[in-house]
């Protein structure tokens, strides 16, 4: 078998994003045991920094030992029991995924939809809550990775809480790129991933749960259907008791620790402004060059921009050329948008001025070659 | 927040084991995307090498995106539907865990037990099969990490297949240390972890499924209760279709690729002999020094040795001294063995002659200090 090669890739897709060299170094740190006193220090530091980035005081704030989708599943398996009514907002792939995951937990799911590229209308959620009696949980995606739509949360949260439901938010592509503000936005359950705006490799899913969510877990009548994602047990390992549950992905926790440290050293406000500035610039440049953005105006994520490919172009071939000639990875469209859009991520360490210029130059060149 | 430190630890516990420097380097390889053509090559190579180490031709052989317990859960959520009858062999913590996981899938579980430190008697499995009508699956642990017991598989497998059941084996601590021989042993479902004898960091769980197991999954009447671990979908990403499911833990796959390459370069037979020789030597040295081994003679794992601490000694304090003075980590007892045994791992890169000598010397010193 051939030895592993290092490839020269610029990751400008919907994730993973480029990883800071110091985070790569952390990945290569010699291991310590998952019950080593030093690892407990690293765990505590990681949790403290995660709370800051999530904007929460939630005690139950930990990175789950799987990628973002494991975080999604964590929220549903822990909060939902068979028969529970759940409203899932669907305006892209990740809303659809939440619906699938919730149903596998035995939830009775009511969908609130919007066209892909549009945000969810809070009034539609209100109507669904009024029509459906006791709803346990309303779930929404803050940063829809399949479309680049940014979902405002405050008004939705108020409506959800007026109706006594728990509020769950997918912040996989949001966390570390735009404010999530878990406490201020009244979010009860929130999950993310390490490989987007946190700029660590994929492999962990930060999750945070409010006191109300923790109470809901305590009041369960049935066991959580997943042993691996059972927060009741995992919290005993990440908390003071340090009960062994499963062997934590130690190197990934090292990497997340360093990624969070670098992010907080830059300062949350500076990080958000950098994402905002570079994202806006890319979107302006794309529009000036005649491209149509997918996400509705006023609801565009700075860290992920979806734009329509001119008709008649071969999406796969163009992306292959971009990769082969420039080493640049961008994402194609998912589901109904397959072949129609490109998704360009300026996330975390990938979000800088040079990457905007480079991408626009490379895009023009590739299009010229395919005229 | 303080920067991450590198600690000087010698990992001689029940896992994680020491990681080869070239595998640590692989962890720091700059990322490529999870849909990058080069990553597909790495995935294919990893699967091919996993098949060699598992001793199987199974097409469905992939590393799941979680630690060993996620592999355990993968086997049960995919093979079990509510009401299915399952026999779980329990002679340690990981047998108990399998029972818990199986029950969370709605299985009706029949236990076959043996005292901790003893292997499971195949006749007991035969009796349980004869008594319980149609059993779908029999599950057993090949290398019980809580006791150091090695379970012979061949006879059990024959009994299981005579009764038309599927045979599932936990090889978390076995794979890469002793032969698992999936095809030769008629194993239908097998899972492992990266942080034991494969000597990669924790974070992936290699899983392999026989054609019969794949058929059983195809014949399911209900959806797999875990979206994250649904092999039907994940196989489409690791197979030729390359359908996006979740973002693979790319760096961990890099590390596993290199760990497997190093292992196979040494040669499976050489690797097994190294584990056998060093494990036997450690066990002889311990016995010569007057320690009692926990596992029954003839059923001792070379890669993990459990021995009884002399009575009246403070387990926690002694292990803390071993860590502080020597940087050596070993494991304590779990469950009913808490405070009574130490578990010493000579797994993968940790299995060498120097570590046997060093551990024996350090142990004597610590005991002398605590006389």
UniProtKB/TrEMBL annotation, chains A, B:
<feature type="modified residue" description="N6-(pyridoxal phosphate)lysine">
    <location>
        <position position="196"/>
    </location>
</feature>
<comment type="similarity">
    <text>Belongs to the class-V pyridoxal-phosphate-dependent aminotransferase family.</text>
</comment>
<feature type="binding site">
    <location>
        <position position="343"/>
    </location>
    <ligand>
        <name>substrate</name>
    </ligand>
</feature>
<dbReference type="Pfam" id="PF00266">
    <property type="entry name" value="Aminotran_5"/>
</dbReference>
<dbReference type="InterPro" id="IPR024169">
    <property type="entry name" value="SP_NH2Trfase/AEP_transaminase"/>
</dbReference>
<dbReference type="GO" id="GO:0008453">
    <property type="term" value="F:alanine-glyoxylate transaminase activity"/>
</dbReference>
<keyword id="KW-0032">Aminotransferase</keyword>
<dbReference type="GO" id="GO:0004760">
    <property type="term" value="F:L-serine-pyruvate transaminase activity"/>
</dbReference>
<feature type="domain" description="Aminotransferase class V">
    <location>
        <begin position="32"/>
        <end position="333"/>
    </location>
</feature>
<dbReference type="GO" id="GO:0019265">
    <property type="term" value="P:glycine biosynthetic process, by transamination of glyoxylate"/>
</dbReference>
<dbReference type="InterPro" id="IPR015422">
    <property type="entry name" value="PyrdxlP-dep_Trfase_small"/>
</dbReference>
<keyword id="KW-0663">Pyridoxal phosphate</keyword>
<protein>
    <submittedName>
        <fullName>Alanine--glyoxylate aminotransferase</fullName>
    </submittedName>
</protein>
<dbReference type="InterPro" id="IPR015421">
    <property type="entry name" value="PyrdxlP-dep_Trfase_major"/>
</dbReference>
<keyword id="KW-0808">Transferase</keyword>
<dbReference type="InterPro" id="IPR015424">
    <property type="entry name" value="PyrdxlP-dep_Trfase"/>
</dbReference>
<dbReference type="InterPro" id="IPR000192">
    <property type="entry name" value="Aminotrans_V_dom"/>
</dbReference>
